[in-house]
């Protein structure tokens, strides 16, 4: 495992996401690297319009940038920080280049819909349009978990209410072996360059670890639901659901069917904090019917 060492050099990759350019992610990259001195930073600008089309050319472009970095700095380790779709791009790049894994110190995903964007699936439920919605709706959790089992990975998420950052539901950014840090009140676009995000990244860099699998009841139940490739969404309709199964530790599985007869599933655990009222706290939300 590669640990932080002041004075040691590394290559830092920063990648912006959908409907964006490189300005903000470049600013974040420079703010978290300035304490290390002269650090090579690559933040490829994909072009705002290109991010609305298909993801394959974007992956190829960033991959070529990585190859350029290898040629220029063959002995330096990598640190990767990516926002939203940028995280999906890097998952694809690392998946197709496992020979690069030993050189990666850490991977940081910020608000990345690893399990598939619910908005992307809603825009293209049948996956027939050759645009970015189909690519954003794809479930990349198996890829992410394979990578996170070998590379220390951090997933930064934020909740502005109902388990979403306004664009990406919390559940879509969670996956096995990744450390998850949840912030409060930061919208999706704000996450790409915010002091709280920078602080979390720098703290993770001090001790990047591979997170062991959780074996509690709720984690196992969520894993079973995710195996069905449900569409993870916000929790705003949790109050309409009925508990259909309870477990000894207080974990519950809930179900609600909307007017379109689409089944929604929720997982809750008992409120544990002294400041919380007694009851059930939703920790997972998803629905069937949109793939």
UniProtKB/TrEMBL annotation:
Q: Which PANTHER family match?
A: SLL1969 PROTEIN (PTHR37946)
- Quote the protein name from its UniProt record: Lysophospholipase
Q: Which organism is it from?
A: Pseudanabaena cinerea FACHB-1277
Question: Where is the organism placed in the taxonomic lineage, from the top?
Answer: Bacteria, Bacillati, Cyanobacteriota, Cyanophyceae, Pseudanabaenales
């Amino acid at each position: 495992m590669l640990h932080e060492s002041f004075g040691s050099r590394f290559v830092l990759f920063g990648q912006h996401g959908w409907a964006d350019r490189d300005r903000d992610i470049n600013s974040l990259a420079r703010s978290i690297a300035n304490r290390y001195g002269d650090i090579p930073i690559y933040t490829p600008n994909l072009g705002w319009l290109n991010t609305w089309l298909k993801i394959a050319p974007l992956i190829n472009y960033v991959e070529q940038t990585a190859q350029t970095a290898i040629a220029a700095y063959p002995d330096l380790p990598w640190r990767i920080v990516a926002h939203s779709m940028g995280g999906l791009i890097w998952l694809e790049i690392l998946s197709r280049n496992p020979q690069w894994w030993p050189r990666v110190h850490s991977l940081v995903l910020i608000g990345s819909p690893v399990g598939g964007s619910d908005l992307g699936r809603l825009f293209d439920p049948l996956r027939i349009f050759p645009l970015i919605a189909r690519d954003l709706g794809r479930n990349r959790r198996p890829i992410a978990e394979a990578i996170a089992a070998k590379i220390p990975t951090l997933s930064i998420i934020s909740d502005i209410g109902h388990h979403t950052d306004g664009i990406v539901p919390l559940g879509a950014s969670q996956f096995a072996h990744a450390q998850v840090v949840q912030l409060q009140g930061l919208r999706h676009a704000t996450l790409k360059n915010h002091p709280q995000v920078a602080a979390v990244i720098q703290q993770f860099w001090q001790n990047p670890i591979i997170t062991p699998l959780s074996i509690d009841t709720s984690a196992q139940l969520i894993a079973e639901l995710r195996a069905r490739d449900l569409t993870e969404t916000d929790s705003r309709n949790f109050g309409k659901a009925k508990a259909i199964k309870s477990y000894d530790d207080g974990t519950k599985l809930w179900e609600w069917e909307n007017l379109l007869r689409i089944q929604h599933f929720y997982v809750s655990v008992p409120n544990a904090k002294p400041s919380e009222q007694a009851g059930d706290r939703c920790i997972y939300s998803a629905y069937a019917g949109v793939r």
